[in-house]
Amino acid sequence: MPRMLQPPPGPTTVGGRRDSQSVSMFQSFDVKADPSQGSERVARLREWLEKEGLDGFLVPRADEHQGEYVAQSSERLPWLTGFTGSAGAALVLKDKACLFVDGRYTLQAHHQTDPSTFSIESLVDNPPDKWLAANLPKGGRIGFDPWLHTISEAEKLRAAVAERGGELVAVEHNPIDTLWSDRPGPPLEPVDIQPQEYAGRLAKEKLADMAETIAKGGASHTILTDPSSLAWAFNIRGHDVPHTPLALGFAILGADGRHKLFLDEHKLSIKIKAYLTQLADLFAPDTLEQELALLAKSGASVGLDPALAAEKLRLLVEENGGKVVHLADPARLPRAIKNAAEIAGTRAAHRRDGAAVSKFLAWLDGQQPGSTDEIAAAQSLEEFRRATGEELQMPLRDISFDTISGAGPNGAIIHYRVTTKTSRKLSAGELYLVDSGAQYQDGTTDITRTVAIGEPTEEMRERATLVLKGMIGISMLRFPAGTRGADIDAVARMALWKAGLDYQHGTGHGVGSYLSVHEGPQRIAKSGTEKLLAGMILSNEPGYYKEGAYGIRMENLILVTEAEEVKGGETAMHGFETLTLAPFDRRLVKPELLTADELGWLNAYHARVLAEIGPLVDGETLKWLEAATAPVTRKTA
Questions:
Q1: Where are the alpha helices (DSSP H) in 307-391?
Q2: Which among 119, 181, 208, 558 could bridge 576 via Cys, Cβ 3.0 to 4.6 Å?
């Protein structure tokens, strides 16, 4: 394909890397991990253990809201260990320390931690509760911060420790907060209103529905602990955590329609206060414990989601005479089922984002192998998103997560984060994996493409095609009501399994509407037990990773469609509408490995990309797009 396209105005290229000083970037490439500090910090934590008469302490990757993305002031796990992944936990005992991570982060954890200080354990196969049940010294006392563990987690930990005749001890003050001398303060970013044209429903209507759900659940009140639920319920957005438009806070919702909202007033303008006071009484965050204790003393029955709510909340209710009712977050499922306005917004966001990604892929295809590196590519992609958003009058609000920009062996690190220390050139004969997303006010995007730099090997082409077959399989799937993500996960793996290959992550996660790029409860994974309902948005992203060589992942976002009758059939079937619009690298496709239906899907998808994205680009990009979306055909004898 021809070389073409200059990146939009923005950071200038300096020595193969773009100079981020000339414009503010949403992503930093500074080295955040510092394994060298682990030994000294663990030693100081052990001194604290000795003073408190404890045998160990748990440090999860969590904040008081149990969110995946946390504010800088809650980055306790990376401060202690050096590990910067979005899921994990550390357990520090008197004579050993373990870091628990899932399969996405195994390689990263080894790179970011001191092996003489931390052993790496599986967060999935051997999580802290199982590890403690097998390894805790008899009668051991394990400390934990009850604000940083859910009710369900605490139950498992308590049972595991009891098996060894030990005790799980809730500490009043987290020792990390004391040891961390330069810990940042809590975020105080402004709160915004999400207009009804994008939210689709008034907040008062949502709150009325949730009050009814609380009453039906046998509770007088519930606590919204998830900032995504808070944002959705009150139609607000914030800027307290990286790349996800959340305002950190809590709400106590009453079945009687009277609600209390706990947000720092420094985040609230006069306009926002006037808006929110129509929906709830406003309180300072540090009064939550006091208000909850008073509520419990009045005999309230408080609904708490065991999978989301902090153990501290359960303790506050029960220790003050209240009753805890296990009640699912009443916003979680309604938030996952997008309404018509949210669906229209996400379609518009994906067309806009598809234009930006296509411009980037065209630019990338015009670079000489070895002339650019992972940081330069990530910066250019953000610039294309920023410029395209401005052109189409919907500004880029943020990226939706740190761009995974991995060349060659770095692409095999599933959740790789490029830094100034690790950035590699995009060299001939390698694959480049770029997983990225954007936050626009009308929608959240997430897309992965794997690109050949120069000529790919036959093995690369074969395995990329097996991954593509899995992605197409999910895309074409029809399924009856009641189907769960766990029921279809194998469809994405079938072609890989036949070749003796697999990948160590789920196939798909839920995605929010100008909210979190990782949104539950829906997911396509072996652990995906939530039914897939019309209006849910998920990712579809099978992959293959050859350690030390390359990584392949292909990802589109998909929308669950309403069940429809099938001609000649007896059961109405749901399906998926593909939202993401950008070409796949045809150089990585072996058409002889695709069935006629798979090849038909690929060519129809590329025709749709050209039809919908073509009008949004011009000049050399349009020429590139026409070539990139040309039909893939099998060779004839």
A1: 311-319, 332-336, 340-365, 374-391
A2: 558
Segment 284-291 mean pLDDT = 97
The domain limits of the chain are: 35-179, 192-335, 337-628
CA dist., res. 419 & res. 422, Å (int):
5
CA gap 143, 154 in Å, rounded:
11
The two structure tokens encoding residue 97:
């320390």
pLDDT at site 86 = 85
How far is 96 from 166, CA to CA, in rounded Å? Answer: 18
Residue 256: pLDDT band with limits 50, 70, 90: very high
Question: Which residues are CB-contacts of 242 (< 8 A; sequence separation ≥ 6)?
Answer: 69, 402
- The per-residue pLDDT for range 496-518, each reduced to its tens digit, is 999 999 999 999 999 999 999 99
Nearest-angstrom CA–CA distance, 57 and 141: 9
Q: Which amino acid is at 387?
A: A
Tell me the residue type at 53. G
Burial zone of 549 (CB within 10 Å; 0-12 exposed, 13-18 middle, 19+ buried): middle
Q: Which of 553, 263, 247 is nearest to 412 (CA)?
A: 553
Q: Does domain 35-179 have CATH number 3.40.350.10?
A: yes
| Residue 181: partners with Cβ closer than 8 Å, 6 or more residues away | none
Residue closest to 428 by CA, chosen among 498, 353, 368: 368
**Among candidate residues 456, 552, 538, the one with its CA nearest the CA of residue 502:** 552
What are 108-122's pLDDT values in tens digits?
888 899 999 999 999
Q: What number is the average pLDDT over the span 186-193?
A: 96
Rounded (to 5) percent helix, strand, coil in the chain: 40, 20, 40
Where does 458-502 have alpha helices with state H?
458-476, 485-498
> Residues 131, 91: contact at Cβ < 8 Å?
yes
Give the three-class secondary structure for 329: coil
Contact criterion met (CB below 8 Å) for 137 and 165: no
Q: What phi and psi, each to the nearest 5 degrees, are found at residue 179?
A: -70, -30
**Rounded to whole angstroms, how far apart are CA atoms 201 and 149?**
33
Query: How close are the terminal C-alpha atoms of the chain, in Å?
Result: 25
The DSSP 8-state label assigned to residue 311 in this structure reads H
The answer, yes or no, to whether the previous bond of 521 is cis (omega within 30 of 0) is yes
Identical fold between 35-179 and 192-335: yes
pLDDT tens-digit map of 533-573: 999 999 999 999 999 999 999 999 999 999 999 999 999 99
CA dist., res. 332 & res. 228, Å (int): 8
For 369, residues 6+ apart whose C-beta sits below 8 A from its C-beta are 426, 427, 428, 429, 453, 454
Paired strand residues for 453? 430
Q: Provide the angle, in degrees to the nearest 10, between the axes of the packed helices 374-391 and 340-365.
A: 130
**DSSP secondary structure code for residue 570 in this structure:** S
Dihedral sign for Cα atoms in the order 283, 287, 290, 292: positive
Pick the CATH number of 192-335 from 1.10.1330.10, 3.40.350.10, 1.20.1300.10, 3.40.50.12580: 3.40.350.10
Average pLDDT over residues 246-272: 97
